[in-house]
Amino acid sequence: MKQRSLASIGAILLLAGLFWQPLAAQDNAVATTNRHTLWKVQGQSNVVYLLGSIHVLKTEDFPLPVPLETAFSNSPVAVFETDVAEMDDPQVQRKLMSQSQLPAGETLQQRLSAQTYAAFTNRVRETGLSLERLQSMKPSMAALRLSLAELSRMGFDAANGVDRYFAARALEQHKQIIGLETVDFHIDLLTSFPPEEDDLVMKISLKDMEDVKSGKILGAWQTGDTAAIEKLLNQAMQEAPTIFKRLLTDRNKSWLPKIEELLHGGKNAIVIVGAAHLVGDEGLVELLKKQGLKVTQL
Fold it and tell me: Are 57 and 156 in contact (CB under 8 A)?
């Protein structure tokens, strides 16, 4: 499993812009919209941009909208959820693979209800994956593997994700790069769901795949439609409040002081995180507004 998987699973599990998610509206939607999943936060002597990332795109979705490129160019500091380059480290990959596996003697089928397992196996057969190879994986990671396969069949590639695209450019341009969380934290977050949540994680993941196919997520991202993204998130929150809290709201609150620190750092910065982290009452945009800061969607 490639490191790029790490970046995307959040989406699957929650729907959240998280990534993944994308399926397309019109090919020219980005070019014709006047708004983007991009916000400008005004500091005392600098600006911090908040860019909602979508972690999987097609080659034809490039070039990205000019306001996104401009915000990146104007920011000597680039901030990501974690260190994208470190995820390529072979040791990190080995740890991810190890933690993706169920305990010896357990199978995926044993962790899921009969109904959920049947729905999963039907999707696996459609994609042509080996069900046998997935049996030893934790439900969250088996769902990720299936989602990646489906996205690949539709022409999407995590290598084309907004976060990876800008991370590569940040390295090339020698920008200061900051990770909000460690890679180890990300691995633990994605592979350590309690057994009682296994079935729910899989059901949400299968549902998210349908949202991807419908084009809802990419369409909302392309047009900066925060209401649509928030609606999808509210559905996820109602279905899995504990997962929603762990993957989104808890992390938003932990990131808030770090973003406030950037606003006092004197240098412009761009913070690139899954789009779901930016919308809603507990999203970063509203949390910053509650601090009395001026936040404007671009």
Answer: yes
